[in-house]
Specification:
The chain is mainly alpha-helical. The protein contains seven helices and no strands. It is elongated.
Length: 107
């Protein structure tokens, strides 16, 4: 069992801290001092998914906080959490949680 490299932890922290920002793979690579191909190649090994899937999971987790703790509309939450539109948000929310956002709000 190998130890997880420091750049992986740094990348995880960066993705969680900047979850609502748009950035390129090159910007992330520069921030963790690795080549973009290194990140692309090894990301699934350490995170068990693609970077896009991981970012969507983070954004859905953040959206759950807004659904539970605010009166923001689902459209506003979708945009605030970085989804292109409410349909994209709803589809990803259901895939991740098994619920539609409107049903989750009622729970």
């Amino acid at each position: 069992h190998r130890k997880t490299p420091k750049w992986v932890k740094k990348l995880d922290d960066l993705l969680n801290d900047r979850w609502n920002e748009q950035f390129t793979l090159e910007e992330l690579a520069a921030a963790v001092e690795k080549y973009p191909t290194t990140i692309s190649k090894h990301f699934p090994k350490y995170f068990s998914c693609t970077m896009g899937e991981y970012l969507r999971k983070i954004r859905i987790k953040k959206s759950i906080h807004f659904i539970k703790n605010t009166d923001l509309s689902l459209t506003d939450i979708a945009f605030h959490c970085g989804f292109a539109d409410q349909s994209h948000f709803t589809r990803n929310f259901k895939e991740f949680t098994g619920f539609l956002p409107k049903d989750f709000r009622r729970i």
